[in-house]
Batch of 4 targets.
Target 1
Amino acid sequence: MNFSFPPVLLIALTISASASPFKDTLLTDETLWGDGLAEYSFYDAELMLYGAARQTEVRHILVRESFAADAPVKADDWQKPGTVPVIKLNQVIRVPAGVYRYDQMLSTFWRGADGELEKFSLASIDSCGNTYKEGRLDGSSLDYEARTYWEGMDRINRTVALPDDALFYDELPFKLRLLDWQAVREFTAPLVPSVINSKADALTFEPAQFLVEATNDGWQVTVTWSRGTDKFVFETQPPHRLRTWKRADGGSLVYKGGGRLDYWNRNQPGDEKWIDENMTTSAE
């Protein structure tokens, strides 16, 4: 891979990246987490699959919960001593593919204390088969496993060393909301490509440049890496909800509505009316 930045730009990026670009302000905001509700967002999406753009909807569900004391899974009793607060983002994706479709969900978990990635898991279901992946962070390494329906990828288990300050592409919709918006303008970080697919992943890390700008639409973060350019726009005011995402592969997400609710209690006939009641007419 041949990927480099101009020397002058690289010097500026290195200097600006001497400290973490992230801060804990959002993590400690009890107006966001203290009510026990989830942030539920709907996005009009155009996702690329088999070389073609597919119109669909993506849902992002963000909530604070607690891991059990003895395993990184949801605690039955969040008040039990030893439980660990985490922030969870579920990205719920349904993509039409001719006569069949993909149903996928990536769950990503960050430590509630410092916003560091703790775990991710993916379920991917299509008319060809089922795939499950999980990554658990252990210090400077990632314990990764995958169970897929692809030959040679039926049972993958390996440990991957993580570079300092590594980021995962799939965590960016929330992780970037933790930026120190008033101070950070640019930084670099190793970036691992998306794991939202049905095959096992190589988990290679690629250098990425992050540029942070205040625009009329909100805070814009431009990510430039070997696969192209991603542009994220977040609301100017906390909690900096994601408004738009133009993806390097040509896909996009545009916010169309949402709100805060106890979605786990909204599973009865008629509860779906909440969706129509909380749609907006634009991404303004």
Target 2
Amino acid sequence: MWKQYYTANSIENALQILSKDPSSTTIIAGGTDLILEIKNGKHPHLTSLIDITRIPNLDQISIDDQNNLHIGPLVTHNQALSSPLIQKHAFPLAQASWQVGAPQIRNCGTIAGNLLTASPANDTIPPLIALNASIVLSSISGTRTIPLKEFYLGVRRTYRHPDEILTDIIIPALDPQIHKSGFLKFGLRNAQAIAIVNLAAVLKIKNNIITKASLTLGSVAPIIISATKAETFLIGRSLTPQNIQHAAHLAQQAAFPISDIRASALYRKHLIAVLTERLLTQFANNQERQTFPAEPVLLAANPPQPIGPPPSHTLTHDPRTLIQTTINQESLIVPNAAQSTLLDLLREQLYLTGTKEGCSEGECGACTVIFNGKAVMSCLVPAPRAQDAHIQTIEGLSSGDTLTPLQQAFIENGAIQCGYCTPGMVLSATTLLEEHPHPTQTQIKHAISGHLCRCTGYYKIIEAIENVEKQPL
């Protein structure tokens, strides 16, 4: 899949490597889009990847003295949605992050990566543009700051130069006392859905009168667009039903959607008005935060497991490189895997075939493993990332012939049909019960939202998890 894989120990180090051959080298962080695109042959020119996930302090969320939020390039969607700072001062981004993929995808995928992929259907771009965010791009020549609304040229096209790395996302912090903000998305299912339409809005309100408005629309044009006529109309007005309805009509006029496999252009136009009216009505009734979970399911250890110290020097993985890792509490040295995914390493090199290969696209969840305390889709994780990592597969869950209470509950409740999805389901449910020992049924559904059961046995799976949580683990 690639010839060279570098694990950088600093941004400066990564930039130096990138500058040598930016046409055939790129940065990998979450990798949830990039790995899939490489598999599908969309980057035939790429020969080298530079992994920045071991660089310290790139996963930080902070606020500075000028009241600006800063989001590092390794901040994942799960980190963003669970951040008190983002929930308070950039709420639409928390909402959008919650609706990206499934928990395993959100544990890997980064906000920065979602911006750089530059799809008009991506969920975090509309809220960040509505929030007036800027990004910082760094190269060996220096840094430059670009307003996000000026960053996009078209579908998957941006102003980023090939030798640049996105090193910061800057958001002017909202004041919840004077701002109303939110995000809505409509897709074909509740999880793992690409947006048919998504939108974000930020209103500044004084004495019930809107003094500033931002309304951005996604999946209805080649880039994220602003509904400028609707924004202008709202300023100086209050959120009455009549004003909301007219603003929704004006927002509808801003879009020029296409018809595709997910929806017709006419349906998308209809949805713009529906979602705009729905979001503004939530603002009027102070209901925009009601559906956001108080305790979102992350499928991650709390506190997070450390990934280990950064390498003292750049690690270069090629076909001859040995990967040293810990799998199911056993230290291993794995040869001939540096050019593959973690799924291939587990199945083809170590014969841990309990980790199933289903879609190989991060859609079905059959390949789920626990990676440094987080549930991930192993088909989208590059194998060199296993270096010095701690990984748990289904083979390491039980003790000899003694099953865990959860595994036993799956048997007793008939939650196993063909069994293909079961290993991934069990690992996600195990992580859920460690994170939330007494989960609600909604939390259970969120935990398994990244899994497809080919036998349609979800009710029994939910019952098994509910029953085991009622017993001592």
Target 3
Amino acid sequence: MKRIIIFLLSVLMISAADAQQIYYSQPDNRDGRNLNFEIIGKINGNYLIFKNTRSNYAISAYDMDMNELNRTDLKLLPDKTINVDFIAYPDFAWMVYQYQHRNIVYCKAVKINGEGKLLTEPVLLDTSEVRFFADKKIYSTIYSENKKQIMVFKIQKKNDRFKFTTLLFNDEMKLQHTSVINTDYQDKKYLFSDFLISDLGNFIFTAGNRSSSRDFIEQLSLLVKAPAEDTFHIQPLDLREKYIDEIKIKIDNLNTNFLLNSFYYTRKRGNTEGMFTAVIDEETNRLIAETFAKISDTLRMNLRDKGNEKTALNDFFIRDVVLKKNGGFLLMAEDFYTQSRYSPWNRWDYLYGSPYSYYSPYSYYSPYYYNYYGFNDWNNNSDTRYYYNNILVMNLDSAGKYEWTNVVRKSQYDDQTDNYLSYGLMITGGKLHFLFNENTRRRMILNDRTIKGDGEIDRTAPMHNLDRGFDFMPRYAKQVSASEIIIPCMYRNVICFALVKF
């Protein structure tokens, strides 16, 4: 009997250790379904969320139980505010915003505290003259992993030339260096990746070259601008007569490397063959490793939900890359496609047929767009059905070779909107938590699948404290501490926020 009691106590202790606590914010009629928002982060123990409806801008501060402590109306933001970005620190945050007055676009920054209140007067960072109403962002803001390097940049196109203007700031928003660089550019033939900045202040991105506007990349170069230089160092990469699509860059600041990943193909518009990986030393710009890792037929069969093994990977897109201390990394790719009565789905149109496939000045661009929410698709009349299915998890070593692979199985679809589909990623306790909705008895239930360091998947029970009426949007979730994540949710046409503590 004593042994049974000890066993039950141990089970309860393990369950308590793995259990989650969920705290919901109270529904506020001001936060309707047309709300745009961004989860800023945890500042001075409070959770800050930026909110925007039409020309109304505010920051809400929540306590540890998601009770709203303060709602600060941002009256300094004009009606014609084009874009707002945030860089959050433990005790304050920078808000970088841009707006147009007459034919001038202004880019300014202001510091806010843990209640969302202003700590400083706005600081002018830069201006641009435009000949029209710039309803799309002119400036982009990026920052390093340690948040000591902040860059505001813009790209202007004229006569097949791109002019890069970069402004490098420190964490006190003091200007360190300004560069103006002109480069050649062929419209609809070049494809730029995300733009990133390292802890050392290096500004990096890739430029891909295609034979036509809807072909895969056949030539690739990494461009690096050192913090005090006014030129790009161009590092060509040998694709070995293979083809790739969109490049995902990850900066390994611990090992001072640049990591490039993409799916590769052996012929144009062919089937996905495997993963292309290139590792470049940040300090010397030297290529350390370049690998084309073919995906096995066994894994293809495991992934196949439709079609045959050859096409099993054609609808997978890289979503996340998580670095390891030894230079290796975990890569997550998700099976995603759409169906519409008006146009057939294909990967090439999705990647290269949209206006975001190449950088267009005065058009929307942000490397963080996936986590910024806005109901832009509720008025979609194209009768589109979205599918988000299995997640492929690959553990690769520092040279891009497979150590293990596994599949997080899920099957999701919805019509007209994909706000409740896909997944949110939480990294805690040496595990990866995949948070996603599953239909259970006509109700969407938030589930948690975890992967350990050896690749073993733990199918945990559904989340605790899942109140009825709250529909979660995990794809817009943001991890705000080592053990906390905020997940937006919908309650009776009002947007709320759920704090999940692991």
Target 4
Amino acid sequence: MAEPPAAAARQWFATPGPFTDLGHHRFDLALDADGNPAILDVVRAVQGLIVYDLVASPFYGIELTTAQAATVNVRAASVLVDHALAIDARPLTEARAPSRRVAARCRSFATLTVAILRAHGVPARARCGFGAYFRPGYFEDHWVAEYWNDAASRWVMVDAQLDDAWTKAIGFTGDPLDLTMEEFVIAGQAWTAWRHGTADPDRYGLSAIEEHGAFWIAGNLRLDVTALNKIEMQPWDVWGAHWEPEDPIPDDLSLFDTMADLAATVDDRLDQLQTLYRNPEVHMPGNVWNVMLQASEVVEV
């Protein structure tokens, strides 16, 4: 008898992709009776290795070296761990002081969380969308991890970036280990809400650079679909179907509508999402425009 689609999808998400394969690195975490690590231990391991570079000084009172800061552009979790070990060679589960960590941003917090969970056979995936907890009334460009909680029989969203310093700074009173869909809005959810007229696109984007709009939702939707195909790109990677802030909204948005629909039902339609990913307008071609570096960049997967 064929395995149900949702069970097959969970099995697929339990194995690493190109950027979430930890290689020879091992996180020796305590395991429960089913052989799974506690999500709190996973998050603490992540937080003990990386630090959000843009708040290193105001939140943690440190100044990152050039070598530490350069890791924000690292895509592969194993390479990020390599850099962390080059600074401090202690076991990976021993938390480093902020000054002994390497730089990262939201996508790397999510991806490293996913990598550790997948290394332990736990279904997990990075999700791209918008955090509602950074600026009141706005939905800020953000990534979180999502893992299958077998005891609760549901996917749970986790934000490893939200340590004590972050939660205090932004006044977050929720549970970073179990975010609600109102606290973190997955890109496809935001897209569908905009298309139905129930979301203002000018509240979705990145306030730090004063950019908001439907184009940002579309870009994050493409990133989320790619991540669901286990290719977790950087937030500032651009390729394929998109439009620029100054461009008019395209007349034909059917491709994005399909992406949003499949991303929302990925557990039952993973095969269709994988087929969609082969569309040249969606598929990461191996060469992207890195907005942060303002350069074309080859990405090998």
